[in-house]
């Protein structure tokens, strides 16, 4: 490893880290020093410190046993600790803070796409296994060297050049999820994947097929949690990455506009990533939707949401008819997940259909009869399926404005008594 000129970030840490986190890492550094261990801040937090971006969570790497040190810090901070002994990692949670402790490790990739073989290593091994130079820096936390930047892969220079660069030519072959990560960081940070890395990315795109659907899904989730996922999907489209998810997916202007509308609609909150997912899958056919669900191994609930979205889309023609009775709109739309309905309100080509869906979401779905099943039994409706039918008929009558009080419902049930709906 070339020894670069020492560059100290203690001042930046003082200015940018919340006081409690600064206190935490100083104490951790002292505790590690006593144990004769070396301790480092690593990864995204170093990158974000240098970029003066907001820092939320910390990643700490320990040369040696991370778990024992993590336990000591958990005691001091009365933090909740979760230990994964197999991986030599521990997570500390207290208040809104989350800190990960990891044992420095060296990795070797035996087969593309498979998880690497891992053994304990030095900080320099640990940085060498990382995805991009801008993520492969560390800051030492032991008191004599507190704040010193360790930057063996010239990440700081790449930050200045706003460049995303892999550390070696086989990086995407070892782990093709890095292809998605490259595009994600590029778009999040407003950087550029440098030419040599772009060439490797294009050369190795086929290796995405060596990665499990679970890992691809995880990367897609990370994409959809970003502030403007459409930029990542658009760039992934241009690079030929998106079609690896499914050949019919498009990262085009429609997607960009619809995602932007989703953000406006959800204000003051951010759209849930599931809403973005439903919109991304919106233009797939029912068969293609099933292929995507299978490939990404979506959970039951998420798969249902995507299926619901597709099923509602099949009804858009009917929902486009002007002047539908509210009870008919209700009939078409009840039972589907709210996110799937919202995706259709945003994605439907017909303004009338979108209005009908909004009417359902804002008003119709909240309409219920005043009478309960018990009330109906008291009124002489026979127990069994009839009860549900009468309740549905009462709701439909309410929806269409044929009655609006409990008394009128009673009257209607009595009339139906002789001639039920
Ligand atoms: P952010 O949380 O801001 O997205 P992060 O850098 O903390 O960024 P994580 O996904 O939590 O992102 O990963 C932590 C660090 O682990 C990264 O900075 C990177 O150095 C490394 N890393 C994560 N995934 C990979 C990967 N597939 N290959 C190599 N290194 C990785």
Structure commentary:
There is one protein chain. This protein is elongated. The N and C termini lie far apart (82 Å). 53% of the residues lie in helices and 11% in strands. The chain is built from 23 helices and 11 strands. A hairpin with a 4-residue loop joins β3 (80-84) and β4 (89-94). By secondary structure, it is an alpha+beta fold. α8 packs across α11, α13 packs antiparallel against α14 (273-280) and α19 (338-347) packs antiparallel against α20 (351-362). The site of adenosine-5'-triphosphate (ATP) has 9 residues, from α8.
Task: Provide a concise account of the structure shown.
The protein has 421 residues and is of the alpha+beta class. The protein has helices at 10-16, 19-34, 44-51, 66-77, 123-128, 155-161, 171-174, 177-189, 195-203, 213-224, 229-239, 242-245, 253-266, 273-280, 286-296, 300-313, 316-319, 326-333, 338-347, 351-362, 373-378, 385-399, 406-418, and strands at 38-42, 58-63, 80-84, 89-94, 97-103, 105-108, 117-120, 138-140, 149-150, 163-164, 192-193. β3 and β4 (89-94) form a beta hairpin.
Largest sheet: 7 strands, mixed
Measured between the Cα atoms of the first and last residue, the distance is 82 Å
The distinct ligands, each listed once, are: adenosine-5'-triphosphate
How would you describe the shape?
elongated
Q: What is the count of helical runs?
A: 23
Structural class of the helices, strands and pairings? Answer: alpha+beta
Strand order of the largest sheet: 3-4-5-2-1-8-9
């Amino acid at each position: 490893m070339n020894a670069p000129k020492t560059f100290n970030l203690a001042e930046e840490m003082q200015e940018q880290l919340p006081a409690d986190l600064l206190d935490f890492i100083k104490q951790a550094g002292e505790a590690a020093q006593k144990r004769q261990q070396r301790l480092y801040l690593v990864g995204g937090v170093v990158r974000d410190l240098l970029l003066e971006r907001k820092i939320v969570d910390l990643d700490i790497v320990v040369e040696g046993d991370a778990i024992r040190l993590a336990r000591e810090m958990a005691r001091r901070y009365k933090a909740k600790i979760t230990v994964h002994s197999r991986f030599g990692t521990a997570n500390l949670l207290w208040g809104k803070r989350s800190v990960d402790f990891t044992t420095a490790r060296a990795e070797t990739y035996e087969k593309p796409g498979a998880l690497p073989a891992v053994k304990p290593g030095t900080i320099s091994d640990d940085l060498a296994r990382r995805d991009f130079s801008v993520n492969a820096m560390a800051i030492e936390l032991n008191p004599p060297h507190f704040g010193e930047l360790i930057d063996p892969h010239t990440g700081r220079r790449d930050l200045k050049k706003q460049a995303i660069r892999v550390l070696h030519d086989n990086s995407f072959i070892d782990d093709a999820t890095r292809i998605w990560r490259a595009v994600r960081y590029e778009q999040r940070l407003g950087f550029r994947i440098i030419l040599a890395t772009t060439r490797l990315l294009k050369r190795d795109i086929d290796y995405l097929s060596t990665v499990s659907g679970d890992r691809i899904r995880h990367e897609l989730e990370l994409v959809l949690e970003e502030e403007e996922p459409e930029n990542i999907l658009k760039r992934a489209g241009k690079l030929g990455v998106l079609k690896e998810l499914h050949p019919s997916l498009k990262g085009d202007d429609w997607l960009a506009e619809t995602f932007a509308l989703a953000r406006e609609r959800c204000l003051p909150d951010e759209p849930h990533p599931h809403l973005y997912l439903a919109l991304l899958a919106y233009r797939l056919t029912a068969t293609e939707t099933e292929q995507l669900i299978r490939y990404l191994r979506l959970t039951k609930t998420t798969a249902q949401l995507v299926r619901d979205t597709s099923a509602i889309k099949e009804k858009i023609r009917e929902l486009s008819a002007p002047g539908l009775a509210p009870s008919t709109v209700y009939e078409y739309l009840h039972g589907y997940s709210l996110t799937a309905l919202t995706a259709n309100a945003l994605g439907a080509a017909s303004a009338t259909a979108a209005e009908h869906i909004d009417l359902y979401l804002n008003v119709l779905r909240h309409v219920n009869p005043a009478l309960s099943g018990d009330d109906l039994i008291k009124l002489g409706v026979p127990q069994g399926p009839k009860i549900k039918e009468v309740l549905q008929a009462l709701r439909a009558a309410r929806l269409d404005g044929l009655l609006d009080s409990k008394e009128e419902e009673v009257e209607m049930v009595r009339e139906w008594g002789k001639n039920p709906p």
